[in-house]
Request: fold
Amino acid sequence: MFEYISTHFEWQSRMMVEERKRLLFVSMTRARDELIITGQFVSHGKRGEYTYNQFLEAAYECVGQHFSPEDVEKMRKERDEKKKAEKLLQKAKEEADNLSAKIDISSVS
Reply:
């Protein structure tokens, strides 16, 4: 019984992949000027042990580019660092504005 369930889930999973491939093909062949493809970069897994989205490699190949998870991880880290830096800068600006307001108030008194 468990073998049947396992086989059924494998078959169902393959069918889902084939349907997604079909939809990607249809969208790629029907796009006129531009096609924007969205989705998850990582299908599943823990940090450092990711399973990458299998369709990204095919999409990159279609436009003549090389798919590199390392490049994307590097961009992700850079983006995260930039967000942190922006938050720190915003906090520093707010603190400077608060200090400036306190100085203005005390100079008037």
